[in-house]
Design a protein that fits this description.
Blueprint: E1 2-7, H1 12-23, E2 27-33, E3 54-59, H2 70-91, E4 95-99, H3 103-116, E5 119-124, H4 128-139, H5 141-161, E6 164-167, H6 173-178, E7 186-188, H7 206-210, E8 217-222, H8 231-240, E9 247-252, H9 256-268, E10 273-276, H10 284-289, E11 293-297, H11 309-317, E12 321-324, H12 330-337, E13 341-344, H13 349-361, H14 363-380, H15 383-417
Parallel strand pairs: 1-2, 1-4, 2-3, 4-5, 5-6, 6-7, 8-9, 8-11, 9-10, 11-12, 12-13
Helix pairs in contact: 1-15, 2-3, 3-5, 4-5, 8-9, 8-13, 11-14
Length: 418
Amino acid sequence: MRILVHDYAGHPFPFDLSRQLAQQGHDVCHMFCASLHTGPTGSFTRRPDDLPNFNLAPIKLSEPLDKFSFVKRWFQENEYGKLAARALSTFRPDVILSGNTPLDAQRRIWDAAGKAGARKVFWAQDLIGLATHRILRKKIPVLGSLIGTVYIRLEKKLLVQSDHVVVISDDFVPTLVDWKVPTESITVIENWAPINELPAHDRINPWSTSHGYDDKFVFMYTGTMGMKHNPELILELARHFANRPDIRIVVASAGLGAQWLEEQVSVRKLENLDIMGFHPFADLPEALASADALVAVLEADADVYSVPSKVLAYLCAGRPILLAVPEANLASRIVSDNEAGLASEPSDIQSFIRNSEIIFNDKEKRSSFGTNARRYAEQHFDIRRISRAFEEIFASALREEGSRADLRATHSITELTG
């Protein structure tokens, strides 16, 4: 099978999938946006152990993508769609799996896939149309609502046009069914983290030592801090422990939220809040191990459709997780049901702070949470099992197309013979 895995955002776990599919004998091309520098990314270069049938196809825009300018971003996402469609036409896959993709770009990719005769598998990591509607109606109430409605309709159309849809949580299914996506065309495959690349390390390690955290208690937040993440929770955490010189709040991030926190550090003279850029992926295992607790936040209106991938990496690290995430969200359910940390609603700052105190004061609980977190990752992040599930979806989509082609041929013969 010739498989094109397209992950616009360049996350580590889709690279994990592509490499495993190549291990299983498929010709795999992994395509991603090489001009997006506002999030943690995977390995953008070939590794010495990569097979000849695994290839990278970075899509580079004429300039870095401006994620925070709606107008410029719209033009750049359309430019990206044109370039990605051209790359798809060159590779000519049997099947394409596409996720994390702006809808204007996805539309162009789906058009190109149709012309190339490729089966289309939509990897729904989020419901982008709904998110766009929610964000824009707040910023520009009337016009924003109209634009958001257009994107909801586009998203519905692209999902219905797909040969199959992979969603990351059962929570997506009712909405997709309501949008007329056939139930038999929907498969739930929860996201994962590349556990083989995220080994657990000792608390004191070269990264912690080089940053001066060996003798500190560290609460660490890593990953994107964008519109659906509330930086005020991190600020309140730092303010709560401001008089404890043995505690550090570390934020390895970029984006509007991280910029706002940097301003607060200066204005409020918070010496316990360290803002740094994203960890290079190669440093991530030791960086996560340097934390005594790992922190993730998600706005209440992000609801069930956004599952923070950082939480999955946290599970691999074997550290307790401090969450401020809606209870209905899959990340909250995973952490709570598996006793891998403590979760609170994002609007309940008091509970968030109280949970941070519990994690700080109870060493036994910290150890138990961390052990449970790593155990969950080891039990659920087996890339061989996950890749086989995708492989079955791709094969099924190709079989269905073959059956349709046979049916069309039969009809044509019947018409010719009268």
